[in-house]
Write a structure and sequence with these properties.
306 residues, alpha/beta, 2 domains, two-stranded antiparallel sheet, 12 helices, globular
Length: 306
């Protein structure tokens, strides 16, 4: 990583990406369920469901998830080593066509860290054997997407095929999709059911009440019961942050579209950028979390302050 600092000024916000740890990363239920040491059995179960393996020893799996306290502006949801593979999992509630580009960044950091741990040098004369990369995105949004789709970095190339490729398998894990995968990993099926319940209840009650109602139902019916019983307050906080943010931004887009595509598109972008700026200024969102919504640092500076 570079030792130089890059600063983005968004109105009253000035955030240095290097040397100053950014601790505003928002955990999600998916990351908590499948990407933590305490829940490595869940990680192993989902890996088995995807790979057809039948491992039962979580010690075979080494978590390597990038932490933005260390990498500042780079963080992923879940990554780990197993079977001589570098596995990367991302969770999405809205379709993002830029995931291959994000994956390129993630894998660059993951492999750099891996080579350093092996005490090897990329300038050496011998070939460094690398764990094989595998990249999955788990989609749990409300828009209709196929059970399985493939995304490639080359889809974004402007002048034909290039010399670098990143390929992602996107799996729709919304309740009712990918039944074989859900049957093979009960925790994933339970997570999808919880999300479905929250969205259903949220149609006629406030989000906080919808979360509590869904969590209570799941505890009473054996759906992630032990996890939800132990972490009810944390679950509420994570879901409120994740889904309230997604809902707010979706409504801003919809309002803009209703005003006409051309004018609405521009107004919608400004509205979303202003909303993200306000969240950053209030300290409830990091700059990197704001950038995750598909804007560049320059856009966050220029469009918000024009």
């Amino acid at each position: 990583m570079s030792n130089e600092s890059s600063t983005i000024d968004m109105g009253t916000v000035s955030t240095t990406h290097v040397h100053s740890p950014n601790r505003n990363h928002k955990d999600t239920i998916f990351r908590d369920l499948f990407g933590t040491e305490e829940n490595k059995l869940n990680t192993l179960s989902l890996y088995n469901a995807l790979s057809g393996k039948d491992y039962d020893d979580p010690g075979l799996l080494e978590l390597t998830t990038l932490d933005n306290v260390i990498y500042m502006s780079v963080k992923n949801d879940i990554s780990f080593l197993i079977d001589d593979q570098m596995i990367l999992w991302e969770h999405q509630s809205t379709h993002n066509p830029n995931m291959p580009l994000r994956g390129l960044t993630y894998f660059a950091h993951l492999y750099t860290a891996w080579v350093e741990r092996q005490d090897r040098s990329i300038f050496g004369r011998s070939l460094i054997k690398l764990p094989t990369p595998r990249y999955f995105v788990f989609f749990v949004g409300e828009e209709e997407r196929p059970d399985k789709e493939t995304m490639r970095l080359s889809d974004a190339f402007t002048s034909g095929p290039g010399d670098v490729e990143v390929t992602i398998t996107v799996l729709n894990v919304t309740a009712g999709h990918n039944p074989r995968l859900m049957t093979a990993c009960q925790t994933l099926a339970d997570y999808a059911h919880l999300v479905k319940l929250i969205r259903s209840y949220n149609r006629y009650m406030e989000l906080r009440d919808a979360i509590d109602e869904a969590v209570d139902y799941c505890i009473g019916h054996g759906v992630l019961a032990e996890y939800l019983r132990d972490k009810k307050a944390k679950v509420r906080e994570m879901f409120l942050s994740e889904y309230d943010e997604a809902t707010t931004l979706r409504r801003l887009r919809e309002e803009a579209i209703r005003e006409g595509y051309d004018e609405g598109y521009d107004k919608g972008r400004r509205s979303i950028l202003e909303h993200l700026r306000d969240k950053v200024n209030a300290g409830s969102m990091s700059v990197q979390d704001a950038l995750d919504f598909g804007f560049s640092e320059q856009e966050l500076h220029d469009e918000v302050n024009q």
